[in-house]
Amino acid sequence: MTSAIRVRGIRKAFGDLEVLRGVDLDVNSGDVVCIVGPSGSGKSTLLRCINLLVTPDEGEIYLGDVALTNPHIRPEWVRQQIGMVFQQFNLFTHLTVKKNVTLALRHVKHYKRKEAEKIAISQLTRVGLADKLNSYPAQLSGGQQQRVAIARALAMGPKAILFDEPTSALDPESIQDVLTVMRRLGEEGMTMVVVTHEMGFAKEVADRVVFFDAGRILEEGTPDEIFDRAGHERTQSFMKKILR
Amino acid sequence: MERPEEWMRSSGPPPPGDAPPVSRTTGPLPPPRVRPTGASRALSSIRVKLFSRSSGYIAIGVACAVAVFFLLGALGYYSIPFIIQHLPSGVGPLILSLEFTTFSYVLGMGVAFGLGLVRAHPPRLEKRRSGAKRGRGRFSFLWRWPLYGFATGYVSVVRGTPFLVQMFIVLFAVTTLYPSFTILGWNQFYWCGLIALLINTIGYQAEVFRGGIQSVEAGQIEGAKAMGLTKTQTFFRVTLPQTFRLITLPLTNEWISNFKTAVILSYISIDEVYFWAKNDIGIAYSRYIEAFVMLTIFYLMVNVTLSRVVTYVEKVRRIPGLGTPLPEVSYTKRLLGTDRRSSRGGSVGPPSLQATPSATRAPAAGPESGPVSVGPTTTES
Amino acid sequence: MTDGVSPQATPSPLPQETRTHWALRKVFAWSIWSRVVYGAAGVVFGVLFVLELGYLGVYRLTYALSVLNPLYQAFWVSLEVVAVILPVGFCLGFVIGWARTTRFVALRGLASAYVDFFRSMPPLALIFFFSLIAGLELRGSGVNPYDIRNLSLWMGVVALALHTAAYQAEIMRAGILSVPAGQTEAADAVGISRIRTMFVVVLPQAFRLSLPALGNEFSSSIKDTSLLNAIGWMELSGMALNLTSTSYTSHYVYASLVIWFEAAILYFVLTYVVTRAVRGIEDLYKVPGLEVAR
């Protein structure tokens, strides 16, 4: 399997606070990698480095063969290849669901309106929200909004999708809807990097689990290895608290 | 192969026991609000206006005011026939006031928007780990800082000095060069007044625009960037539309405030409504109470009408769920200071950015380099 | 670069920012441009001093200084008026703002009427008519004319205080309403009476929340005091007008401009000091963790 995303030696500091201290990560094509760890450990920052929302101070990121940290790369191109789904959904509140999904298609990929709408409809059907085309995000529930966000990311046809705590802002019922969509995506072969606290999801869907703490990867392995037979003491204590 | 809809069975059978069945996603949802067209839209808009509770309160308020008016008149404090007889003569001056206000307001919008845009993106000083940086040129600081400094200085000075002083400065600056001129039927006093009002309103409108631009949620911008939109595209398609929705109320308040400021033009003998009330009614007939009552009538009429019109427009063009709170309950806006009054005179002068507590308590200011930003401010970045 | 980039195996290392570049940015950003007003004032005075040497004759330093003294005396009159208006306006505004949040419809209605009225009317009209009408009403009675005059002057100040109270009422009301309802619930659950809750739980927080907007309001009312000359107060703008009318005797073309510039500077200083003071109070009242970061 080719390595889709490779992260080598990423360092990032905000002022005096060093958030990422040398992170190495490999994500193979078609993998679902779950990143778990305590809050404030830099998981979100790592995700944002991968799609260049945050520029790392040091280190390299590769997407396939392309070095993303190269200053000549257009970040817009990177973000077409790697989609992102946020904790707060970040849908455009002033646009309908359909427009939310077609905005980038029309203005970044320069599709015509009809083609963009066709793609939008198919992606929204894929997440089960085909009937909400003309609603505004504020009229939808949290789970529906997050699914629209996923459809929006999918519409761009990315090679990989990053999920930044996608279910943390949802009520328990909606969480299952979203997780089901994500599981489905994983089964269909999408490369996914998911920062999450949903250990059940990680156990069942992830191909690899990465334990992140204080700006570094402490441990990584298959879900069984991490959840049941963690080597590191910190990992064990974290898992004890989380898995109750 | 499963049909997609089947994954989405979001609520299964209700749990046993007395827990109420959760019906959030089952059952018919309210129909999506498709923008109605033409006549049906007008009709629904009228429905919105007539049956809203706030309209009821306003109606009661107006009725009370009219009742008080007649009561006090009957008691002999002022004579109502006199008022009714002389009110029409004030319409001309009122129109002049409105002209001054509206011309300066409209002419100033463009410049104010530019200034607000500049002020919305203060250049930051941060140590860059690497020399080349996307989005900012290596030497862009040479023009960014002066531009920001100019905008900040302009806004500070205009918001920190009274309009009376500004008016006289403009008057004397112009008349020493051109002592007397008449353009389009207005003499030099009128033009100086207009210019002074223009300079004043630009200063305040700039802060309103700045507040609007900065209070678009950072998350939306991040979402737009993550989809690959360039900065320009994000600005025009995400930030600007939301800005315009957010600043409707503060801009209205700014117009009202401008209208009230225009009264000061009476110092240079411009025949606007206060001048008329004072001289043609008060001094001429010695009827000061009637003059004041007439002035009140005019001002209340204009302000209440304007507030109602704006509320109506906001309701009609409302996007469900998008937060433009209605004027009569937008205490949060008042608090945040997007109310014009509270957007006046912020920290004058020397550069000190003040943050008003925004709803998200986000940090609001970078280096101390600007006057009080009154207005909801989110992360200044 | 239509589709991104040609794939590279290893990117070239990015150069560190040079120290001169960093220093240049730092100096440039900090010293003049972010202190533009102070710097400009310094530059202006420096240049003007040079001009005083008679080269260009635009600005006469001696004239400017001679005019500064009376303006400065009038400045203290302005200060006196401001010192009356701000506290009175604040107290009254607080009461009315509170009244707007009560359950009693009558009280709320009255307060709303007050606020709507005083926010719609221009301060100049309020000052003039209040003062004049008060004076006229008293003319028939046997009150000493000197006292009538005094009273009418202070009625103008009262008008301004009422005007600013209306705005402050709105600000306080917003502050009270933005204290989360959960706080009153929690106090209620513990058994604190409603009135005591108001004083001990809600008001301190409301005060803290409304301080920034109050600072703006204070500076607005300072600027409104410039209108008091319409009824005879010899405060800063009044003195400026006075000087302007006699400035032709100095045979200096820009005399009036100089006078008004100096008045502007003095007002600027006054509003700035007051706003800074309010910011100081904000710092005094801030709660760690709930600060709005600057």
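Residues 60 and 70 of chain A are 8 Å apart (CA to CA).
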